[in-house]
Every structure is written in C-alpha cells, then in structure tokens.
Design goal:
The protein is of the alpha+beta class and about 290 residues long. The protein folds into two domains: about 60 residues, no CATH class; about 220 residues, Bacterial polysaccharide co-polymerase-like. Helix content is about 65%, strand content about 10%. It has a four-stranded antiparallel β-sheet. Helix 2 packs antiparallel against helix 10, helix 5 packs across helix 7 and helix 8 runs antiparallel to helix 9. The longest helix has about 55 residues. The protein is rod-shaped, with a radius of gyration of 36 Å.
Length: about 290
Amino acid sequence: MQQNNSLNLIEVVAAIKKSRNQIIVFVFLSLAIAYSVLLLIPKYFQSTAIVVAANPALADKARFFNNNIQGLYSNFGSGDDLDRIYGLANLDTAYKLLVDEFELISYYQLNDDSIKLRRRKAVLLLKDDIQLSKTDLSQLKISVWHKDNKTSAAIANRIVKFVQEMEEGFWKNNYQSTLENLQASIKKMENDVKVISDSIKIQTANSAQAMLLKNKREVLLQQLQQYQKTADEYQLASNNKTPALYILEDAVPAAKAEKPKKLEILFLTAITSFCFGVFASLAYSRNKMA
C-alpha cells in the first residue's frame, strides 16, 4: 500500500501550531538582523523642485513694441517646450557642473584612477541619485537624493538655475549677436556719412556732383536712423530677462530621510520570514511522515 506524503489542511494547521514558537523566534530574529542592518545603512534625504516651461515666444522682441500682439502670447509653454527643459536638465554638462560645484568626487569616495575617470564615475553615480519626471500636468519634477538634506535641496535648485541660465542664454546670445552686427553696420554708415559730408565741402554748392552726394547722404541718414531704431529694440530685448521656466516649488531640505524606508523593509522582512518559517515547518512535518 502506497503511503500518502501530502498534508491536508488540518495537518497544516497542526504543524504550524506545533512550530509556532520556533516561527515567532525566527521572525523576531530576522527583524532584529534587518533593523541592525538598517542602522548601518546611510540615510538619504530627498528634495524635489517642480517647474513648468515658459512660452519661448515671450522672448520675441516684437512683443515689446506691438501692443496688438501682446495678448496673443500665453505665459506657459507646450509639451515640446517641457521636453526641451527636460533635455537641458539631463545634459552631461549639467551633471559635470554639479559634480564640480558640490565636490561629489569626494562624496562618492572615488580615490582611484585619473581625475577624468573619477569625474565620469561621479556623473554616473549622480544620475542614479537624480530623478527627472514629467507629470500629466506638464510639470517637471526634479528629485535629488543625498546623505545631507541641505545639499539635496541645493542640488535640485542648482539644476533649475542651470536650465534657466542655458535657455535664457540662447535668447540673449541671439539678440546680442544681431545687435553686434547692427552696431558694426551703423558704425560703417556713420563713417560713410562723414566721408560724404567732407566731399560735399570741397564741391561747388550747386554742382551736379554736390547734389548727388547730398542725396546719397540723405538716403544714408534715413537708413542710419532705421538701423539705430532696430538696434535700440534689440538692445532692449537683450536686456530684458525673459523667463525660461516658472518655479512652482523650490526644493527645501527634507525633515526626515526617505531612504531606506525602514517600516516597509521591516514589514516585508516580517512577512517573508513568517512565510519561510511556515514553509520550513511544513517541510519538516512532511519529512517526518515520509
């Protein structure tokens, strides 16, 4: 006759009751070990900054001089503008800047290899400590984890500032470049006007040559006036600080550590150790029946 090695529900409950003390001891021992390990694990604080993209059309110089189109511009950008902000925040240039400014090579305890390789390793480690996420409300959340709560907030806010500087720099450099070209043209035209005026002085007042020179000077003066007006507009646009983004929430130092999540880890440890203890007791009971 073949022996049945399976356990029915009554036998399972009986086996668990019989081994309950050992299971409880195992659970508490597992919790004690887990808690001791958690005390040794460094605490990480999380700080988050939340921003939205500004409308890049706000940098259009025409907005400053045409009252009829000012109301056509929305203050907030589109999803594409948010993608651009995200891309700037995720540049290696930004991470390298953060590594240098916050001395993260020392923070990550990178002592071997060349300085370039240590810097690269620090960038990769920093990327693991930074999370960029776009929300359904077209917001960009910049979350940073660090062992120091003040530093985590400072890094998050520095990323926001970096994006602002980059985006606003694009617009400013574009206007500044155009302004420099206009100023060069204005200077050349002023010299031409001076040369023509000097030429007129040596001509007979009513001569045909003098009339041609005067007409040419008049045209140049009109062009010079228009160029100067345009240059003034570009100068005003260049001086104007058009926002690249709007800060909805600055990052602030966290009041408590976010990692490790002690309660969650201890809860999972208790569940896992209990299940393992039950499984071990059932396996032991089944082996005795065999």
